[in-house]
Prior knowledge:
There is one protein chain. This protein has 272 residues and is an alpha/beta fold. The protein has helices spanning 87-93, 131-139, 153-156, 180-190, 202-215, 249-252, and strands at residues 14-24, 27-33, 45-50, 66-69, 72-74, 77-82, 100-107, 120-126, 145-150, 165-169, 176-177, 194-199, 219-222, 238-241, 245-248, 255-257. The protein is built from six helices and 16 strands. Helix 3 links the parallel strand 9 and strand 10 (165-169). Helix 4 (180-190) runs parallel beside helix 5 (202-215). It starts with 13 loop residues before the first strand and ends in a 15-residue tail after the last strand. Mean pLDDT is 90; it is low at 1-5.
Amino acid sequence: MSGPAASSAPFGRRLLEVAANDQLGAYRLLRLRDRGGPEFAPGQFAMLAAEQRWGGGEGERPFLARAFSVARQRGEESHYLLEDVGPGTHRLCELAAGERVWAVGPLGRGFQPPAAEGRRALLVGGGVGIAPLVILQDSLPSPALALLGFRDGARARGAELLADVRVATDDGSVGHHGLVTDLLERELDADAHALVYACGPAAMLEGVRALCARLQVPAQLALEAPMACGFGACYGCVVGVRGGRYVRVCVDGPVLDAHELERVDEHAGAPA
Length: 272
C-alpha cells in the first residue's frame, strides 16, 4: 500500500498522566496527558501499560502492553476507547485521574487520504474498532458519513464520538436491526463512487472487503492482531496476503488496502 510510512517512534516509553477516564456506555474513554508528544496519523496506535499493578499478581509474569488505536488528539491529550474484556483492559479501564500509563507510539501505518478523484469517504466501524475512525473523521477536509455497528444499545453510545452517524445493532435496540454491512451496501448501491475506510471485528471487515471487491470500490481496512512488541520483532501479528506472503500488522499495517487480502483472517479484527 502506498501512503504514510510506518512510524519511527522511539523504542523508549513515555510515562503519561491520566487526565480522565470517562464512562461511555459499555466503554471507557481514557484521556492521557501527552505534553510535547508526537502527532498520530489516523489509524496509528500506541502500546499502553499501567505504571502500577500491571501484572498477574505477585510472583507472576507482568502483562504485555496492549495495542490501542488513538481515537483523538485534542491539545495535549490523546484519547483511547477501551472495553473491559480481560485482566489487562480491566486494569486500564479502572485507572483514575492522576495515575500514570506507559506509552510507546505512534506505531504502524495509518489511513491514506482520499486521492484527488472525487471519491467520497465512507467510514465503517464496529465495536471498539470505531476508535481510529474518530480521528480520521476529524482529519478529513470534507464531512464523511460514518456507518457504525454494535452489539447493543450500551455499546452504541460509542457513536457519540463521531458526527453524521448511522447505527446498526445486533439486537435492534438502536438504529438498523442487523449488520452494519447492510447499511454499507445500501450506500454503495446508491453511489459507489466512494472510498471505504473500515475497522472492526474480523467478520465485519471480511464483509466489507467482499462487498467492496464485488462492487469494485476501493477500501482501506485497519486490522488488529495479537501483538507483543509493536515493532515487528516478535512476529506475533502476522496475517496472510495475496501471493502467499505474510505481513506484520504492527509495521506493515495496521491499515492495508483491501485488494491486498484474499480474505480477512479470523483473528485480524477488533472486538465487537
